[in-house]
Amino acid sequence: MASTSGNAEARSQVLLTTSTQETKELVLAKDRLLAKGLDLAKDRLLALPQEESEKYTGSRELVLRENVSLDAYLKYRERDPDLSVLIYLDNGTIKAYELPTFPHSRVSATIKVSMGAWNRADLVYGDDVTLILGANSSKEPDSWVRPKYRIRPGPGAPAANNLGAAYPTMIIEVGHSQSLLDLHRKVALYFSPRTTIQIVLLVKIFKPKGNNTITLIVAKYVRTSQTPLIPKQVISFGTATPHQSTINYITNTMGVPQNCFIGFGRRDPVTGNNYPACNMANIGLYLMNIPANELFDGDSTVRPFTQAINQGFNLDLYEIQEAIHLRIANQRLRHIIQEATQLTIEKQELENNISIADN
């Protein structure tokens, strides 16, 4: 009997080992397929800003896999947190939407540094944390802000992750490859009934024009607004006028009232005058206010607010424009150097060929 029992345990162990091995091989096979999809997505996303004009307002997201559970996605992100393409889980579908490019990361970093200079004592800042946004949705925002002492959810209450962390109060998303449509749609995920996120700030970087001017759009969404999925404020703060298709999308599709969409290339609906350019720091029109009540939601330690906190944070959009323009200037300089180098090489080759012919 002992021998029979031992054989049964041995067979059970073999079956368990085989099953575990098959599961690991299946996971590896799926990861390889997803990795191949990520490589293809990277090539496609790299080409998008060059191929599509500013008037394009459709989606640029690429579907990588469907019918994926939240648990499977979270485990995948734990195994491979550093990807060449930014992805997220949208109602069971893994989508690629952006590349972690220099302009993309520089904008979110500029915002965090500016906010940190205003208040580091009461706020914490971070990047790329995986947030649970719904029963089958998850995303890593470009950057996030949270009160240092925001109360953690109680037992059984929805939390930002499986460790029970509190949600950020503010999300920062920057779009370089992704379209304005893609950015706008993500707000519904961040403001889902599960989360306690209060503010979403979107920045869209359009393709630079031939004269090195660029269209830049920022949109602020606030959960406590009567219409949280419509931006409370949209500002054009670049050096190029937004394309008419972009204006139409913001006012007609996003539903932003004319008086809430201001900035360069726009007219004051009351006076009919053009708004001034965003060409220096501290222009009132280009200071986007981040409200204190929503920013410090869930943290009673900072109340009553000091006068400085009560006014909220004024984000100077000129700082963001300058950061992006510096990158454009550097890219242009590198392009000129590359062209000059190529001309020098071609000239040298021509001179060598002439010398050979003379001999």
- Helix and strand content put the structural class at alpha+beta
Question: Unreliable segments (pLDDT under 50, ≥5 consecutive)?
Answer: 1-19, 21-29, 332-341
Overall number of strands: 14
From the structure provided, what is the oligomeric state, counting identical versus distinct chains?
single chain
Roughly how many Å is the radius of gyration? 25 Å
Distance between the termini: 98 Å
| Proportion of residues in extended strands | 15-25%
Q: Helix-strand pattern, N to C?
A: HEHEEHEEEEEHEEEHEEHHEH
Return the average pLDDT rounded to an integer: 84
Provide the helix percentage.
40-55%
Describe what this molecule looks like in 3D.
The protein has helices at residues 2-51, 70-79, 102-118, 180-190, 244-253, 292-295, 307-310, 317-358; strands spanning 62-65, 86-90, 93-98, 123-127, 131-134, 137-139, 143-147, 170-175, 199-205, 216-222, 233-236, 261-263, 287-290, 313-316. The longest helix is centred in the first third of the chain and has 50 residues, at 2-51. The strands form four sheets. A seven-stranded mixed β-sheet has the order 4-7-8-9-10-11-12, sandwiched between helices. The protein has a three-stranded antiparallel β-sheet with strand order 1-3-2. Strands 5-6 form a two-stranded antiparallel ribbon. With 359 residues, it is of the alpha+beta class. It has a domain at 99-338. 41% of the residues lie in helices and 19% in strands. Mean pLDDT is 84; it is low at 1-19, 21-29 and 332-341. It has eight helices and 14 strands. The termini are far apart.
